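re the bet — no i am not wrong, look at it urself. input seq straight from the record:
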Amino acid sequence: MLLTLIAQISSPFKSIFERFDNTPIDSVEDLFLFARTRASFVAQTTLFGYLKARMGTQFREYFTDDVFSQAIQDSSVKVFVSCLSDLTVHTVAVVADSAPMQHLEAEIMARECFDLGMREGLIDIDPKKIPADARERFEQRLRETDWPGAAAGDAAFSLSPVDLARHAPVIDDFKKFDRNIVATSIGNKWREVRTSFGKRAVPGSIAVDWRRGRRS
C-alpha cells in the first residue's frame, strides 16, 4: 500500500520501481547508475517509512492531502541530495582505494557521478525546489574527504542520517526524539547497500574504464 501512495506523489524516486540486479559493476556508467538508483531507493524507503511509522493508521489521509504531499516532495529532494552525496563519496572511495587511483582522479570521478545523479535523479523536479547550494556543499566535501577513510565502513555516510531527521515533515519535538531511531534505520539500509556494492563492484575494471574515457 505504501508504494502505491508513493507512486502518486511526484518525486525524484522513480528508480524505486527499477529492477536492481546482481550483475557486476565494472564500468563508470554502472557505478554512476548504482550511486543514483541506490541513493534514491534509500532516501525514499527511509523517509516514507519514517513518515508512515509516525502517522500510524492516518498515514493514508496525509499522503493524499495536497499540501502535505507537496511537503513530502520538498523533503524528499533534500534527502535524496544528501544520500547521493554520501553514496557517491563511498563508492568512488572504494574504487580509488582498490584500483588504486590518485585522489585527484577520485575527486573528478565523484564530481561527475554527483552531477549526473543530480541531473537524472531530479529531472522532473522544479529547479527552484533543488537546494541552491547542493553543488557548493559537495565541492566543499570533496576538498575535505579522506578518501581511504571514506572507503571503510560507514565513514562516508554522515549527511543523510542528519538530513533525514532534519527535513522530514514532522514537528520539531518528533525530530528531536526520533533522531537516533532515524539514524539507525538509514544506517541499516546503507549497510545493505555497501554489502551489495562490495560484492558486485570490480574496482580495477572501473578504473580502467575511467582512464580510457579520459584519453578518448
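see?? Residues 1-11 have pLDDT under 50 and may be disordered. told u. also The chain has one domain: 25-215. so pay up
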